[in-house]
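Per your request, structure below.
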């Protein structure tokens, strides 16, 4: 699969969200990463399906919805209806992961499992055949702008091997502290989808950064 860049709008200015979205898509971003936080599963609150729906109305790009919420099973259909293309749920947020993955697929979306930094990739062994992707958190979820946790790289290397043997079509996404300084290492560890918030929106030239990051991931 082609490597893809997913700017996280969490780091953008919500008072001009349409402008920010168009800035990213016209700069060459492959999708938009939307972080949904509930103040319960993570210590921060962002937005819900309404935001996804409003962004859906202004772009045809893939909407990659990362649910950092408790009881995600209650909201899958609502996010799918709002226009999510990909939905990822935390391994740590459910006891019925297999059912939840089917629920996401039945709602018409690509289904991903997210693991926190302290969660081993080994817990994914039984679910790998059923999923479209794994999102490895390279910071503790809840906030943008945190420092990349280096051990995430050995996790993606190990996971790539597992995927190659039991679900070669599945891909790896990495989220948290990803930027120009570590992009090559992240790519070389087997990651195919790169989430980046502060390293894009916090840079002097966000569109230039998108172009530069895309060049690196495809080099
Ligand atoms: C963190 C979120 C990330 C966040 C990444 O909980 O899942 O998507 O927006 O932001 P940066 O790239 O700034 O670490
Ligand atoms: Zn995220």
């Amino acid at each position: 699969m082609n490597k893809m860049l997913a700017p996280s709008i969490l780091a953008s200015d919500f008072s001009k969200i349409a402008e920010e979205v168009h800035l990213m898509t016209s700069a060459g971003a492959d999708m938009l990463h939307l972080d949904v936080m509930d103040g319960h599963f993570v210590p921060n609150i962002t937005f819900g399906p309404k935001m996804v729906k409003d962004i859906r109305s202004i772009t045809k790009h893939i909407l990659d919805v990362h649910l950092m919420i408790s009881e995600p099973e209650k909201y899958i259909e609502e996010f799918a209806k709002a226009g999510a293309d990909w939905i990822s749920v935390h391994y740590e947020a459910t006891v019925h992961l297999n059912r939840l993955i089917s629920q996401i697929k039945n709602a018409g979306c690509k289904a991903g499992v997210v693991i926190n930094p302290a969660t081993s990739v080994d817990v994914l062994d039984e679910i790998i055949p059923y999923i479209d992707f794994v999102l490895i958190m390279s910071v503790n979820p809840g906030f943008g702008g945190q420092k990349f946790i280096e051990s995430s790289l050995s996790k993606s290397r190990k996971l790539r091997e597992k995927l190659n043997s039991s679900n070669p079509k599945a891909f790896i996404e990495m989220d948290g502290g990803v930027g120009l300084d570590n992009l090559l290492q992240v790519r070389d560890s087997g990651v195919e989808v790169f989430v980046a918030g502060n390293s894009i929106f916090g840079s002097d030239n966000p569109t230039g950064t998108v172009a530069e990051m895309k060049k690196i991931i495809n080099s």
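The radius of gyration is 16 Å.

Regards,
D.
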